[in-house]
Design brief:
The chain is mainly β. Helices cover 5% and strands 34% of the residues. The strands form 6 sheets. The chain has a 9-stranded antiparallel beta sheet with strand order 1-16-20-13-10-15-8-7-28. A 6-stranded antiparallel beta sheet has the order 6-25-24-27-22-21, with no helix packed on it. Strand 21 and strand 22 form a beta hairpin.
Length: 453
C-alpha cells in the first residue's frame, strides 16, 4: 500500500465515503479516557513514554490543562506519531484577513441587530480557514478570558494545509454543507444539525463537498462541559453517550504542509515536510468530538409559564463567577407546547447576557418572517427583545391546545456573560446587516384598558 492510498483508506479497514451516511467509526462518551490504535500494538503497555516506542513512533503529550488541575478537570492526550510536531521551519506572521480578536478600539452599539444570510463565495476558491470572518467578540486571548463569534463561508478543501488554535476552543455549527474534518486524532463527518468541537492546540483541516456555510463559537479560558442537571436527575438534555470521538487514523506523507497557527489573535504559518496527521495511536481524555442535535432530550414546562431557556443548554463553558457561563451553546429544538393560560412563545426580555442567535434551517417561532437560515441576530446586554408583532398577536389569540413547536426548524443561541462588540466586517463590510430590524416591534398594539381586567 502506497502512502497516497493510505490517505484514502483509513488503516482500521473501512473506507471514508462522501455520501449522506457517516461511515466513519467513533467512540462514545463525554470526558472519557479513550484509547485507540491505527496499527495493532502501537500503544505502549503500562507506561506513556518508553525508551523506544512500538513501530519506531515518537511519544508526544498534548496538554489541555495545567498539570496540577484537579483530576476531574485535568485534560491531556498522549499521541504516538511518525514524526514529532516540533519538526518544522520558523513561524512567519501571515495576513489575518477578516479574522480578528482585537475588540478594544471598535465602535459599540446597544442596538438590536439582525443579519441576512451571509454570502457563500462563488467564482473563486475559498477554503474553510480562508472563509472565517469574525462577527463579534469580547475579552482577550492573551489574558485567557473571552469569546468570539465567527462566520465561515467556503467552497473548496484545505489542501496540504492544517490549522490549530493556540488561544482556545472552536465549537463549529454547520448550516449548509457537510464538513469532513481531519484531526490529529482521527476523522469526523459533521453535517448540518450536528456540531463539533476542536479544542485548543489540536491540528485539523476541513474538506467540503461544495458551497458551505456555518457558525463558530470560540472560547478562551475554560473548555466546554456538559451543564449540571441538578433536580433534573441523572438523565436528560445532551446525554454523554451521544457524543462521538474519532478513532485513530493516520497518513504517512512526505510532502510540504503549511500549518497555520492562531496565536494571541494573529495568524502565523510554518512549513514542514510531512503530514501533521501521522498519529498512529493515542490515549487520553483531551479529544475532538461531535454531537447530533437530534439526540437532545428536551425538558419543558407542562402546566403553565416557561422554564428558563437554560433548559436547552447543550454545552457550557464556565465563567469566573459561579453559576454564570462565559458562554453557553443553547438550541431550540422541535418539541411539544402544552402550557395552559400561557403566552407560549419566548417572553419579552432584557438580559444581563449577550445573545447571538443563528438558524440552521426552518423558521424560528418568535420571528418567522425575517430571521433566515445562514443569518443571525444579536441582542446585546440589557437591550430589550422578544416576539415581533405578528407573533404576539397570533399567540395571544391562539387556542391553547397541545401543539408541536419548531418542527422542521433548528435555531440556536450563543449566550455569553461578556458584552460583545461587533466588528467592522459585521457592521458594514459584509453588507448583510438589516437596517430596519427595529421596525418588527413597532406595530405592537397598545391594549391597555383601565376599565377591563
Amino acid at each position: 500500500m502506497t502512502d497516497r492510498k493510505r490517505k484514502q483508506e483509513p488503516v482500521d479497514g473501512h473506507t471514508v465515503k462522501r455520501g449522506d451516511k457517516d461511515d466513519l467509526k467513533y467512540m462514545s462518551g463525554f470526558g472519557n479516557d479513550f484509547e485507540t490504535e491505527g496499527l495493532p500494538g502501537a500503544l505502549p503497555e503500562g507506561q506513556n513514554n518508553p525508551q523506544k516506542c512500538p513501530y519506531g513512533l515518537y511519544a508526544e503529550q498534548l496538554s489541555g490543562s495545567a498539570f496540577t488541575c484537579p483530576r476531574e478537570t485535568n485534560k491531556r492526550v498522549w499521541l504516538y506519531r511518525i514524526q514529532p510536531s516540533v519538526k518544522h521551519e520558523p513561524y512567519q506572521e501571515a495576513p489575518s484577513g477578516y479574522h480578528s480578536n482585537a475588540f478594544e478600539n471598535i465602535p459599540v452599539t446597544p442596538q438590536q441587530l439582525r443579519w441576512a444570510p451571509f454570502d457563500i463565495p462563488a467564482g473563486t476558491n475559498v477554503d474553510f480557514l480562508e472563509g472565517v470572518h469574525t462577527l463579534m467578540g469580547a475579552g482577550d486571548p492573551c489574558t485567557r478570558y473571552g469569546a468570539a463569534v465567527h462566520i465561515y463561508t467556503c467552497n473548496t478543501n484545505m489542501k496540504n494545509k492544517a490549522f490549530y488554535n493556540a488561544d482556545g476552543d472552536w465549537l463549529i455549527v454547520p448550516q449548509q454543507g457537510v464538513l469532513h474534518v481531519t484531526t490529529e486524532q482521527g476523522k469526523m463527518r459533521v453535517a448540518p444539525n450536528e456540531i463539533c468541537v476542536v479544542q485548543q492546540g489540536m491540528r485539523f483541516k476541513v474538506d467540503v463537498d461544495g458551497p458551505s456555510r456555518g457558525y463558530i463559537l470560540e472560547v478562551w479560558g475554560n473548555h466546554f462541559t456538559l451543564p449540571n442537571l441538578g433536580p433534573i436527575g441523572a438523565n436528560g438534555l445532551a446525554n454523554p453517550r451521544d457524543f462521538k470521538t474519532p478513532v485513530a487514523w493516520y497518513e504517512h506523507l512526505n510532502e510540504t504542509y503549511i500549518i497555520v497557527s492562531k496565536f494571541q489573535g494573529k495568524l502565523f504559518t510554518v512549513k514542514q515536510d510531512h503530514s501533521p496527521f501521522d498519529v498512529v495511536a493515542w490515549h487520553g481524555n483531551y479529544v475532538p468530538y461531535k454531537y447530533n442535535l437530534k439526540n437532545f432530550m428536551v425538558i419543558n414546562a407542562t402546566a403553565f409559564d416557561h422554564a428558563d431557556p437554560s433548559i436547552f443548554t447543550v454545552l457550557t463553558c464556565t465563567g469566573a463567577r459561579e453559576g454564570t457561563a462565559l458562554c453557553d451553546f443553547v438550541i431550540f429544538p422541535p418539541r411539544w407546547a402544552v402550557q395552559d393560560h400561557t403566552f407560549r412563545p419566548p417572553y419579552y426580555h432584557r438580559n444581563c447576557m449577550s445573545e447571538f442567535m443563528g438558524l440552521i434551517y426552518g423558521n424560528y417561532e418568535a420571528k418567522e418572517g425575517g430571521f433566515l437560515p445562514g443569518g443571525g441576530s444579536l441582542h446585546s446586554m440589557m437591550s430589550p427583545h422578544g416576539p415581533d408583532a405578528q407573533c404576539f398577536t397570533g399567540a395571544s389569540n391562539a387556542p391553547l391546545k397541545p401543539v408541536r413547536v419548531a418542527d422542521g426548524t433548528q435555531a440556536f443561541m450563543f449566550e455569553s456573560s461578556l458584552s460583545f462588540k461587533v466588528t467592522a466586517w459585521g457592521l458594514k463590510t459584509c453588507g448583510k446587516l438589516e437596517q430596519d430590524y427595529w421596525k418588527c416591534w413597532q406595530d405592537l398594539p397598545v391594549l391597555f384598558d383601565p376599565k377591563k381586567k
